[in-house]
Specification:
seven-stranded mixed beta sheet; single chain; 24 strands; Nucleotidyltransferase, domain 5; 22% strand; globular
């Protein structure tokens, strides 16, 4: 038996789990917020190190043999030739680069050109877009940039004592906009297109490789982005999809190959195991529930309780929850729609049910985008606080047409980082195969089956699709 640690440096805090290498059982945990005021777009990366040090106090890492690092995605750290920060890190939620994203899309010849080149169509958050913004807005800083790292790459480099070798993993690299999951290589020409000149990029190492060893003999694994780490911590595999219910939504699944999508609805990411992780985003998920709850003078729990008093189909009410426009399908300038108003349907419980069905049908549309490309979906993991609402748990299996698993709340990104550390440690010791990660005990979860409600769910989906196609004809035909 050995002991490993996984640390997750999110946008707000650092969480550390110390785990048994054989079972994944959590032995100790640590937490510390980042010393930041609000949520600035620019962050001194030293804040991440300070938070890490605070989270690891009290002997938390005593006896640990290896550490894995997960961190917020799309946080770009531009470094000069001496390894110093050129400017504060530009973090994932930064929206200043929206114009730069449009510029980049046009510069390469459109969305399809980007999808075919790297599997990612530039959005404001992506590192390649941030580099374009830097070149346009802070040209002196752009010119001084000699190396570009993401948050987890930078943290791994710091933990190793800033060696000459700088590394990254394929999972994190796949979201940059200048590394292709399909061919496993960088596109330096896209970095130059964005930044205005070539720059050094970290070496991509394999999922089970070690980035290095500290002078004290502590092995540091490759590290990865939070999305990939959370998928690894959950233990999902082929046939599994993860639906994340935030204000916006996302659907991702494990697949054996990269998927280039000419319409840009699929972001072709790599996972933390050597497989692929295609992702489809929606702009509206829980925000549609919150908006409806406010309209009805209640909260999410109250909305769920109301919805359970209605019946599948919401007495003919259909909500297209495109409140902020929509990304899947691509309707950036549209608004939400409420259809099927009749005197008998104008009751709070039917509107509440329509909000839940609209949100879940929109996410089912995203699932169908993946299924339409040959991605197998037998089981859906449902994440986010709204996953615990009875109205979600009752409707999701029949609308998704699959078994729904609601895992117990846990630090899955940190657990995934720890599992990666255990893998790299086992490979270095000759006890594990580089092609097969350690098998850890699965997450505690509630499981819901579609059962006899499957046909009812299909009818509700058909009702939703009919309204969607009538309101936005051809939206899913490009």
């Amino acid at each position: 038996m050995g002991i490993v640690a996984g640390l997750d440096s999110s946008s707000e805090s650092t969480r550390i789990v110390v785990c048994d290498t054989d079972t994944g059982a959590v032995i100790r945990q640590g937490y510390a917020p980042h010393p930041l005021e609000g949520r600035p777009a620019d962050v001194d990366p030293q804040a991440w190190l300070l938070s890490l040090g605070e989270a690891a106090t009290g002997g938390l890492l005593e006896g640990v043999q290896a550490i894995g690092v997960s961190a917020q995605q799309n946080a770009v750290v531009p470094l000069d030739a001496q390894g110093g920060t050129v400017r504060p890190a530009m973090v994932g939620g930064d929206k200043r680069a929206q114009v730069a994203a449009v510029d980049l899309i046009d510069a390469l010849g459109g969305r399809q050109a980007w999808a075919e080149a790297v599997g990612v169509v530039p959005q404001a958050a992506q590192p390649v877009t941030k580099l374009r913004w830097l070149a346009r807005t802070e040209p002196e800083a752009a010119q001084r940039t000699a190396l570009v790292l993401q948050a987890h790459d930078w943290l791994v480099w710091q933990l190793l004592g800033r060696p000459v070798r700088r590394t990254a993993d394929r999972g994190g690299a796949s979201g940059t906009g200048y590394w292709s999951a399909a061919n496993g290589g960088y596109r330096p020409d896209l970095v130059e297109l964005a930044l205005g000149h070539q720059t050094a990029l970290p070496e991509i190492i394999g999922p089970a490789e070690a980035a290095g060893t500290t002078p004290e003999g502590l092995l540091i694994s490759a590290g990865t982005g939070e999305t990939m780490a959370a998928a690894f911590g959950l233990g999902i595999g082929v046939g599994d999809a993860v639906v994340s219910l935030g204000a916006s939504g996302s659907v991702m699944a494990v697949h054996h190959e990269a998927l280039a999508d000419p319409h840009g609805m699929i972001t072709s990411l790599a996972d933390a195991t050597g497989m692929h992780l295609p992702v489809v985003h929606t702009l509206n998920a829980v925000r549609a529930l919150r908006g409806t709850a406010e309209l009805l003078g209640t909260d999410l729990d109250g909305l769920s309780e109301l919805a359970t008093k209605s019946t599948p189909g919401s007495h003919g009410l259909v909500m297209l929850p495109y409140l902020e426009g929509e990304r899947t399908p691509q309707l950036p300038h549209t608004a939400g729609t409420l259809s099927g108003l009749r005197r008998e349907s104008m009751k709070p419980e039917h509107l509440a049910r329509a909000a839940f069905e609209g949100m879940l049908c929109s996410l089912a549309d995203a699932l169908d985008v993946l299924r339409g490309r040959g991605v197998e979906v037998r089981r859906v993991f449902l994440l986010g606080p709204a996953a615990d609402l009875p109205a979600v748990q009752a409707a999701a299996p029949m609308l998704f047409g699959a078994q729904v698993v609601v895992p117990q709340a846990a630090d899955y990104a940190a657990l995934g980082a720890a599992r990666q550390a255990a893998w790299a440690l086992g490979v270095s010791q000759g006890t594990l195969d580089a092609r097969q990660p350690p098998v850890w005990q699965g997450a505690s979860a509630q499981v819901f089956e579609p059962g006899e409600e499957l046909a009812v769910g299909q009818a509700v989906r058909q009702q939703y699709v009919a309204v969607r196609d009538q309101t936005h004809p051809g939206a899913f035909q490009g």
